[in-house]
Amino acid sequence: MSVAVSDELYAPVASGVELCYQTFGSPDGDPLVLVMGLGGPMNWWDPELCTMLAEAGFHVVRFDNRDTGRSSRLEGRVTRGQLVRSFLGKGGRPPYTLSDMANDAFGLMDHLGWDSAHIVGVSMGGMIVQTMAVEQPKRVRSMTSIMSTLGKRTVGWQHPSLLPQLIGPRAAGREAYVASSAKMWQLIGSPGYPSEQAKVRKRAEETFDRGISASGVMRQMVAILNQTDRSRQLAILKMPVAVVHGSADKMVHVSGGRATARAVPGAELIVIDGMGHDMPSELFATFTDVIRRTADRADVSGSQDQSA
User: Fold this and answer.
1) Cα–Cα dist 61/9, whole Å
2) For residue 76, what is the domain's CATH number?
3) Stronger pLDDT, 80 or 206, i.e. the higher one
4) Average pLDDT score over the chain
5) Is 154 exposed, middle or buried (0-12, 13-18, 19+ CB in 10 A)?
6) Global pTM?
7) Domain containing residue 231
8) How far apart are CA 288 and CA 236, in angstroms?
9) CB-based contacts of 258, cutoff 8 Å, min separation 6
10) Alpha-carbon distance 19 to 201, whole Å?
11) Does 40 map to a domain?
12) Which phi and psi angles does 291 have, rounded to 5°?
């Protein structure tokens, strides 16, 4: 079966914010929104995975978050000092919040004519889809949160060895970005499913060529660090929820995934041995199966009353 893939298109979603997006599959499929993590443009959702999801009956949309790829760049300077203070819970008001990014995704749904959709998020994207679910539950048919956490500071922490790479200065230029990216994925990738360096470098080259913004990544980081604890809000969700996490995740400790699943009544928790903070191609079938069966649990007729 051939899967239809759109050109890269643009959607105005908020004042001064335009998202670059792409769809896979038939418009008759179940609407599925894929939300990527920190600094990750849409190409981090592998086309092979998007195709598999389309073949599983979804109409898939992937997009560049604000401050990423070909989507709009925002304003607001973030200093490294503010970033460090945010790690300590004293960062002050961020340029924008995860709620703003959740509203971007809802704006994209509006542009596509989707009243509701199944939503999937990775890392920061998981935080965004959780925010979508708690703020506008009637628009969420099902949610799958992958290698993410729920905003509670006592879970989902980063391994200390990653901090220098996260907040340290970086050299400018394409080759420097590719080298830095390769080093980061070597640190946080899946030890049970090692990536080929050629593939890692190719994705980094594509990411740089799509457009990167160091200041944008800083703004996203501050939004993450200033997120609220969603535990109580997650506890009243009624849509089907799945939580996927790797046992070897150094970027977001598996405790974040476990806490998220505990917070949501009836949530399915899948902990994958040997998976780190990436999405190995060997697990694409697993991700597709989890997302499909979670969506299949949704009672579409009752999706308009998802909150208590």
Assistant:
1) 11
2) 3.40.50.1820
3) 206
4) 93
5) exposed
6) 0.94
7) 9-298
8) 26
9) 155, 245, 269, 271
10) 25
11) yes
12) -65, -40
